Amino acid sequence: LFMIIILLIGAKSVQAESYRVEDMDIQATVEPDGSVNIRQEMTYRFSGHYNGIFINVPYNLEDKERKDAISGSTLEFYNGNNVKINSVSQVVEGKEILFKQVERARNGNTNLYTTEEKQGVQQVKVYSPSTNTTKKFKIDYTIQNLCVKHEDIGELYYNFIGGAWETTIEKLNIDIYLPQNQNNIEVWGHGPYNGKSKIINNTHANFKVENVKPGQYVATRVLF
Question: What's the whole-model pTM score?
Fold first, then answer.
């Protein structure tokens, strides 16, 4: 009995706080003006106590991502600008609870969010204290000038998951919609080698990736 107690105390002492994203679903729609509206739903699993989460919205490609995916091009073509956060919310028992945007907040606050510009990334800090639980968050945002208009085609190249993500994403689904497109499309995925790209039809492309590691990026390219 004494040895069992010692083992239990030791096991408890080495437990570390951790979190992961069990599931992430991204719905992106290309608008006629070249902007892209993105609705992102994320299920987080928290072990330990946390005051909230950070959501990073990249709109400029990082150096290593440019090198991997693009060569011999005018790289600035693929940078967006003017990220607009339309809404942040949490889904509780099927009901969506909207969070309020504020200039500043303190740890321990709830149902609030702030934004901060960080070198090509719009960082959203979501205040939602969590202890040993699972939570589902949603964010809706628009990035201006993200698509490129070439002489004969349009192109969307975007790293939906930039290298600033610091946790594992177990399941990632990305749907891209082009409601104005009438001709064939071509699609490619960049990043982890286990990803799958699929053309659903002329207005819909799908990308799936599992076990995205911290620091990895997941980018998609669609020609239309």
Answer: 0.87
